[in-house]
Amino acid sequence: MTESLTRREFMKEFGKMGAAAALVPMVVAGEQMSDKPAGLQRPAFIKEVDQPTTEVDWAKVERLAEGERTVRRQFAKYVGQERVDKLSEIQKANMDKYLKEDKPGYTLKDWALQSASGGGAAPRKFFLDPESVRTPEALGVPKWSGTPEDAAMIITAAARHLGAATVGFVELDTNTTEKLIYSKDPDGKEMKILDVDAPAEDDASRTIPKKARYAIVYTVQMSEETMTRCPTHLGAQTTSLTYSRSQNIQERLQRFLMGLGYMALGESSTNALGIAPALGVMSGLGELSRYNRLLTPEYGSMVRVFKMLTDLPVAPTKPINAGLLEFCKNCTKCADHCPSKALSFEKEPTWEVKGGWNNAGHKAWFEDATKCRSYWYETGNNCGICFAVCPFASKNLASFSRVRNYLTATIPAFDGTLKKIDDLLYTPYTEFGKPQKDPEEWWRLNLPDYGISTDQSVRMTS
User: Fold this and answer.
1) What confidence tens digit (pLDDT) does each residue in 93-134 have?
2) Which residues span the domain enclosing 327?
3) Is 363 inside any structural domain?
4) What's the structural domain count of the chain?
5) Residue-by-residue DSSP string for 369-419
């Protein structure tokens, strides 16, 4: 399988969609920005919708006890401790073997970078001690005031400046979106939502004041080039670095909101507070994908999702339809490449929940998280191959990416051909479990800061 196309080969494949030149004015016209006063400024062909493309039955959705349900925290519950112990032995033996063999992606320099990438970040805190922040009260001035639209604008500007990629907002409703807040956090603490004035925390619980009705949802971009080296140490450290960056973003954003005079309740640990992909979908940052995570128009799969609650009234952002979930129906690329065969090949998402780790009440391609997690032990890392091979992860050819995004959002009939082009351009179809690109080559690349490009960032109004 070739890694690139000649001009003739590219145009031949592209010709299946009609004359390529004829699409140029369509794409240019489709990329005119909306006249929204603040927030995400996206091409006009990405539609805001009242309901997400993922179908939801809120009556069946329940608040999830993350620490008790997910495979991430309760792997032994689903496969048994004996299996975990055996996998741990395999992991230790493989990591020792790969290091001594100097296996690409598992060398000492790769291990050292993986170790370094998770450090240097501020510890996560559910809420900060008010005495550590100079609040308006301490400064002797009134707290900040403005319209919900003004609040959305300044929070977005601050979050982006502090390192977030895209930012959205969800107003919590008792019968719907409040159910996306965990009933128990990963550490087992009960998450109470009560009619009280201030947040609180003790050894058994965390209290969220009922008036903290607004979820700030934001993405942090990952390095595409580095993720293509998954599932090695080198590839996995992309995730570690993104999570450590998010910790600093969270504390700084908490300080910003408290400095305005408002609450800022964040994640107490990795993937805490609420269901990240669901909040990402409801805030319009992306759509739910075949690999059952958030897929975004700007960065594809190359993001992680984070969230925070505040009592500052902020204008909610709406779900979107960018044709991404529809594209997933005709693309099984993540499932094709999944070495553990944890992902669904079904054409349509389903209401039928798979595994106790998944939540009822929405249609999805539910993954087999026990297969996925088991494979992590073999690699010694998280995997991430499904993220790396997603067609929307690739931004190398900007002109093709723009045409692809336009056609995905407007003409689903082209989805199959777009996938074939992506296969030819980006995916060598290596054997299961092998990186898409050479890990040793990465060390010689001249990548931008954090290995990411901000050229794909959303444009903001002045």
Assistant:
1) 999 999 999 999 999 999 999 999 988 888 999 999 888 899
2) 31-393+428-456
3) yes
4) 1
5) HHHHHHHHHHHTS---HHHHH-GGG--SSHHHHHHHHHHHHH-GGGHHHHH
